[in-house]
Amino acid sequence: MEILHAIVLGIVQGLSEFLPISSSGHLELTRWLFGWDALDEELETAFDVAVHMGTLVGAIAYLRRDVWRYLVAGFGPLRHEPLGVDGRIAWFLVASAVPAGLTGVLLKDQIGDLDRIWVIAVMLIVFGLVLLIADRLPQRKNLDEFSLRDALAMGVGQALALQPGVSRSGATLSVARGLGFDRDSAARLVFLMSLPIIAGAGVFSLADADIPSSFWPPFLWGMAAAALTGWAAVWGTLKLVRSHSFAPFVTYRVVVGASALLILATGWR
Known about the structure:
- Helices cover 74% and strands 0% of the residues.
- The chain is an all-alpha fold.
- The chain has one domain (3-266).
- Helix 6 runs parallel beside helix 9 and helix 8 packs parallel to helix 10 (168-178).
- The two termini are 21 Å apart.
- 44% of the residues are buried.
């Protein structure tokens, strides 16, 4: 695997993980468009997990104050302090990882068969339109009103995103907006709840991965690129949603999905 390819894929992953446009779908589309299919399935999966972990580092770096705040509050009872609102939110964020975690474990062998290009393209379009509809619903709740019911519902959205093209952030943003959260609260919740699921999936997948020593340099470069662009994506998304709707992301998803279907239909790739 060439280092340049790893950096490009790391940038794609970092930018698309926290934008509602599907990072896994974009990784597959990028490989498909440029013909970067040299890795076997096991190494390709390991690389994708590695760049996801790089994105995790970038997100934690940006959200470090929120992460520390909820960690401290969540373990407050160990210091004989009341759990409080922040403590409950912390544990609800952990609970939100359960639906996707169970789905990933139970369907581990089937997940590798979900990356067909036409399916990714259709999912980009369909779930882009779902996001558009959800984003037009009333905003009546903020982050402090996050409940266990909300956490599990948004967790189901994360589970749907195991299908490339759906988008973890896109599906969970759609659910959050459907539950009535304002855009800023919805985006912050989505970013925070993605941290335990990305970390858990990374540890689970890399624990038994056999990565040849020659692949470590591109893997590390890809992770570094994903970390930097992941930080930028969190910053940009939170800044954007305070004053704009998710419509630009919907337009982008539809254009990319339709373009991929057109390329397939013409036989160019």
